[in-house]
Every structure is written in C-alpha cells, then in structure tokens.
Amino acid sequence: MRLLRILLIFFALIPITAFANFVFFPQETKSILIDFSGFKKEGRIYFNSETDDADVRLIQSLIDSASTRVRLFWGGRSADPKFIYCDQAADFKNYSANPEAPAVTYCKLGSYIVLSKEGTDLDIIAHEISHAELYARIGFYRWNFVIPDWFKHGLAMQSDYRNYYSSDTLSARTSHFKSMPAITKFKTGAQFYNGTRDEIMLRYMVAKYVVGRWYSREKLLQLVKDLNSGKTFEESFKK
After folding, report:
1. CB-based contact 152:122 (threshold 8 Å)
2. What whole-number percentage of the chain has pLDDT above 70?
3. Nearest to 71 by CA among 121, 115, 117, 137
4. How distant, in Å, are the alpha carbons of 5, 6, 8, 9, 82 from that of 2?
C-alpha cells in the first residue's frame, strides 16, 4: 500500500511539475515537447513545414561536421541532442529563451539545440553541441549546480573557432592579457550575462583563454570522473 501511495503521488506531481516548468520556462518546455508540435522531423532535426529542403540538408551537413569536431576534442561521443531549426523569426522567438543569441541549448530531459537562421554556422553549432556533450557526461544536477558558467562557456569555446574570440583578439583588447576580468567570479548565468554586449563577449574570450591553457583531454576526462564521484568543481579543476 505504501508503494502504491508513493506511485500515486509521483504520477499526480508530473502534470503539476510540467505546468510549473512551462510557466517559468515556456520556450524550454516547448522545445522538450517538440515531438508534439507541428514541426516536421528528419532524423534529429525539427523544422517548419515551409523550410526549404536545401536548408535542411545544409543544417544536417553542418551538424555532421560540428559533431565530428566535438567528438575529436573529447575523444568520443556521448551526446545525441535534438535540433530545432527556426528559419522564421517568430518560430525562434517561440523556442528560444534568448532571441538575441543565434542559438540556445537546453539541458533537461536530454539536450535540445535551437538554431536561428543566423545560427546556420559550423562554429556556432559546434559550440552548442559541446554544451550537450558536457551535459551528457555529468548529468542534470552537476550541470546546473556544480559546474560554473564561465567553465561551461570556456569549454564550449574550445570547439568554436570564430576569429572574434581568438587569443590574438583578446591580447589586443587586454594589453597583452594584462587587464583581463577575473573570469572565475562569473559562476552563474545571471552573473556571466550581466553587462554590456562588449563585456559579455570579452568574458567569452577570457573563458576560452583560461580553459584552453588548462585543457588536455586527460585533464578533462579526469575532471568529469572526479565530478561524477562527488568532488567539487574547485577540487577537480585544480588537478
């Protein structure tokens, strides 16, 4: 009887939890429920019925190339995200919690990458897949409550080769790395994105630089192993 009560409570909480998630995170919830939308599906890609077949083929090609780049960086693949391609501004606003960005990744009940028309770019897609890869390896709790945002972005930037975020650009902006912001204080998304566009872009550059100087595949895989064994990020990162 006790087990039955627990099961009844569990199933009663599902619609309540789903409704609460929709109220606070409507775009994320719609993305999670993309299979119940009017979007067409081809493989892992979802798109508006008016989207040209050529655009879908291009997106698939970019996803394949970006996935290979991330796989080579990690030495393997764990993530299998769904991609929601929005070539219309109204669709992107409907699915993206940040319509100012060309793409967004949700990590809850799997990973969902929402791409705008401007997000049809190899580097941007590789960046988003990198987020999905880390999430797949550490899980929901560590992704949301253990890993600081500056590291998430710095790691994703290792697979993002856009010149704007290069070390040469960073050197020019910071007097040869002498006036960089203290990136490790930006632990949450609210902290990381609090500022002007130039300040946020600089944080991306610095996060990329700091993680790049730390990175080796062995260090990264050991960090994941340490986190999954219960160690703090600070303990794992300093190794």
Report:
1. no
2. 90
3. 137
4. 5, 6, 10, 11, 38
The closest of 156, 144, 157 to 233, measured between CA atoms, is 144
Query: What's the average model confidence in pLDDT over 119-146?
Result: 97
Specify whether the CB–CB gap between 48 and 94 falls below 8 A. Answer: no
Q: What HEC string does 139-156 produce?
A: HHHHHHHCCCHHHHHHHH
Q: What is the pTM (predicted TM-score) of this model?
A: 0.90
When pLDDT is cut at 50, 70 and 90, the band that residue 7 belongs to is very low
Return d(Cα 106, Cα 128) in angstroms, integer.
9
Pairwise CA distance, residues 159 & 155, whole Å: 8
Sign of CA dihedral 90, 95, 100, 104: negative
- Cβ of 80: how many Cβ atoms within 10 Å? 12
**pLDDT tens by residue, 214-225:** 999 999 999 999
Edge-to-edge order in the sheet of strand 103-107 = 40-42, 45-47, 82-86, 111-116, 103-107
105: which strand partners? Answer: 113
pLDDT in tens, 25-71: 799 999 999 999 999 999 999 999 999 999 999 999 999 999 999 99
Q: What is the mean pLDDT of residues 196-220?
A: 97
